[in-house]
Design a protein that fits this description.
alpha/beta; 7-stranded mixed beta sheet; 3-stranded antiparallel beta sheet; 7 helices; globular; Methyltransf_16; SAM-dependent_MTases_sf; S-adenosyl-L-methionine
Length: 252
């Protein structure tokens, strides 16, 4: 009786499997190194102060951020650090100098502050209840340090977009978004907001942490309107960084 040899016993298959494992190990090592470098940008104050803050080093500046622990939107999440690091380390490809930039879901303002320090005209937006802390952080970290003074503006996704951000005067080169997709009921409104703020030449830089199936479904919906490209992945954080541009339906 002749026994059939398993395909997995072939030396070539073993070699290919070894190469795949080596590649995965290299990618995991690269991920850990980059994530460690990103997290090293954070520091805590050596002394207790009247107003608590957390520190970050980006663009050659010490940035002090005050958080509000009673609100998800007023906390610095890892996705924001990933986007800040990306902006700082990719200035040749994504030059912020004199560009019109809007951040949606700006939260504590860290990403907007970094974009401002890189020379952009920045509009930082979020819900009305977050604007006080957002304005405080942006003012204390950009005053006399930036080429263009950043603006803070209310933006409730999908609400009064034509009135507050008329298409004729809203010419943004970049839309920045960090961790705007999570367990909230406003994903369709978020998609509408992306679509409204985008011109054909607008570039979206969007960092997302994958937590639930909702994230995958939103990405699928997003792809219906935008060309989406994965730029970087950080498996240890379950975070991906995307670049997106509006689909040109006229040429489709």
């Amino acid at each position: 009786m002749i026994k059939k040899a398993s395909i997995y016993s072939h030396p070539l298959v073993h070699r290919l499997m070894d190469l795949k494992a080596q590649k995965e190990n290299r990618e995991a090592d690269d991920d850990r190194k980059v994530v460690a470098e990103i997290m090293q940008r954070c520091f805590v104050p050596a002394f207790v102060t009247a107003i608590s803050w957390e520190g970050f080093h980006f663009v050659g500046h010490e940035i002090r951020i005050t958080e509000a622990m009673d609100c998800y939107g007023a906390i610095v999440w890892p996705s924001a650090l990933v986007l800040c690091y990306f902006l700082e380390t990719n200035v040749k490809q994504y030059n912020m100098v004199d560009k019109n930039v809007i951040e949606i879901g700006a939260g504590t303002g860290l990403v907007s502050i970094v974009a401002s320090l890189l020379g952009a005209h920045v509009t930082a937006t979020d819900l009305p209840e977050l604007l006080g802390n957002l304005q405080y952080n942006i003012s204390r970290n950009t005053k006399m340090k930036c080429k263009h003074l950043p603006q803070v503006k209310e933006l409730s996704w999908g609400v009064a977009l034509d009135k507050n951000f008329p298409k004729a005067s809203s010419n943004f080169d970049y839309i920045l978004a960090a961790d705007v997709v999570y367990a909230h009921p406003f994903l369709e409104e978020l998609l509408i907001t992306f679509d409204h703020l985008c011109k054909e030449t607008t570039v979206i830089l969007w960092v997302m942490k994958f937590r639930l199936e909702k994230e995958n479904k939103f990405v699928d919906r997003f792809k219906e309107l935008f060309n989406l490209e994965e730029i970087s992945s950080f498996p240890s954080l379950n975070i991906k960084l995307y670049k997106a541009m509006k689909k040109n339906w006229r040429s489709a």
